[in-house]
Amino acid sequence: MRVNIIGAGLAGLSAALTLAKDGVECNLFSVQQSERAQSVMAEGGINAVLDTMNEDDKIEYHIKDTMDGGANLADPNAVDGLCRNAPDIVRELEQLGVPFSKNEKGIVQRSFGGQKKKRTAFVKSSTGKMMMTAMIDAVRQYEAQGLVYRYPHHRLEDLIVRDNECCGAVLSDFFTGDVYEFYGSVIMATGGMNGLFEEMTTGSMLNTSDAAAIALERGVELANLEFIQYHPTTIAIQGKRLLISEAARGEGGRLYVKRRGYKWYFMEEKYPELKNLMPRDVVSAEMVKVTSRAECDDQVFLDMTEIPPMIWDTRLSDLREQCVNYLNIDPVSQPVPVSPGIHYFMGGIRVDEEHRTSLSNCYAAGECACQYHGANRLGGNSLLGAIYGGRIAAQSVLKYADRDALYRRNALEDVPAQNVSPNLSKRITEILASSLQIIRHEVTLNNSIHEIKMLLTDDINSAERRRLHLAQAVLLSAKSRRESRGAHKRTDYPEKDDVNFHKQTVARMNGDEVEITFLDIPERRE
Ligand SMILES: Cc1cc2nc3c(=O)[nH]c(=O)nc-3n(C[C@H](O)[C@H](O)[C@H](O)COP(=O)(O)OP(=O)(O)OC[C@H]3O[C@@H](n4cnc5c(N)ncnc54)[C@H](O)[C@@H]3O)c2cc1C
Q1: How far apart are CA 417 and CA 177, in angstroms?
Q2: Is 0.90 surpassed by the pTM of this model?
Q3: Shortest-distance atom of ligand 1 to CA 11
Q4: Which of 48, 391, 497, 515 is deepest in the core (most CB within 10 A)?
Q5: What distance lies between CA 220 and its chain's CA centroid?
Q6: pLDDT tens, 382-408?
Q7: Four-point Cα dihedral 193, 69, 281, 222, nearest 10
Q8: Does 209 contact ligand 1 (Cβ within 6 A)?
Q9: pLDDT digit string (tens) for 435-465?
Q10: 218 CA to middle of ligand 1, Å?
Q11: CA of 210 to the centre of ligand 1 (A)
């Protein structure tokens, strides 16, 4: 057998490594080389209870912080596995050569949002780049052994589905235009749905969202699409948003707004325990609230001037460089103007604890999958989820797929790859942006739903239809969740409603219509 992994960021590499270690072949497809996957952009770190900071940290606390941060919407059994495996994952990364920042006691850990202990291991402010370098190297050994076949510059065009089973994937080669069917199990590792929000995200625009749209069209269920994380400290730069990592607040950065001319450290006043490090959904919503008050200015600042020079040199050097290069602001001496920007998609392809999707023989891992983060992700849990999820997805393929299945690749004649036109892509962003802000309301959601419906009646190609259906699924999910929870806050339903909505939102195609239902969260096993 040969497994088809779509996506070569951390989740895809982790899946490839797991399969190869078991002697199983895989194809590793991606729109660009791994070196350009979004995973390299991660700055702040990866969470694991190593307890190197004398804080008596425990795995149970990591589980609790993750569940609480996600407003209890994650699968508790999956979160259990994630947190219990985290220490080994970090140690394995270290063995692969990730140069985690250390002191005499071992790996140093920093504070990150929504966590009551210092639990985030890091490599200065280039954690993702260093983890990817090590993982790319590790996978390369198996490329040399003929176990991993790389296909960079290949784009997913379709999934092959027969009798409700995924039999493979269709991919096009950017350079030749050739289109091939690749038969075998599929692991989706295609990252977040950034393409739905052009110029509004901190993430990579190589992640167009079309993989999720293809999955939806082919009968795969998506879940929790309404939970879109706005990171509190971002800045608009040309074509995207620059992230000021949460590490900056973890190391002492403070948020303030001018109130009647004086600095008001609003997070510290309202949340004396976690202060500026409350979960991202809370901080972003507070920023919206304070800047809309009459007595306050409309700009929040991140003040990092109290961070000691040694910390800048040893832990935040890349971040300082970014501020100087992109903003012409030296954060060592000047506060930085920040506002919330889209950063992460908690929702995506619905998977169970074993990373199986609703379509047999199709698995998903990493940011494209909906699993560990519930209604809001904690910083540092995504790198962890990508590595752990990729591994579990691969283990499930090894468990369930037929190892003796013959591998086959088939060239398709005269199948032109379809693209979403730039104008339509932009228009979809405008429509989504008008109603999927941090604070939402049914009236604006209904307007957006109507506008997407109108676009579906235009003369559009199949890629455009899929993208519109995905946008519709996000909006309908947001409309159907009539409560406020985590990253989904509504003025018309301002309270959390555990009686009706302690559930996953599930989106699927029913004929040509998007259908939304709700699914209970599994009970935690003893
Ligand atoms: C600026 C920034 C900082 C971050 N910092 C942190 C942090 O400190 N800690 C943390 O835990 N998380 C952080 N995150 C989040 C984290 O980086 C990502 O969630 C994680 O790396 C996702 O990994 P992935 O493997 O799922 O996806 P990605 O790394 O995004 O990889 C996706 C892969 O899929 C491929 N692909 C996409 N679409 C297609 C298609 N249609 N056909 C074929 N291939 C396709 C891409 O080419 C790529 O290879 C940060 C994110 C950003 C943007």
Answers
A1: 8
A2: yes
A3: 25
A4: 48
A5: 19
A6: 999 999 999 999 999 999 999 999 899
A7: 30
A8: no
A9: 999 999 999 999 999 999 999 999 999 999 9
A10: 23
A11: 14
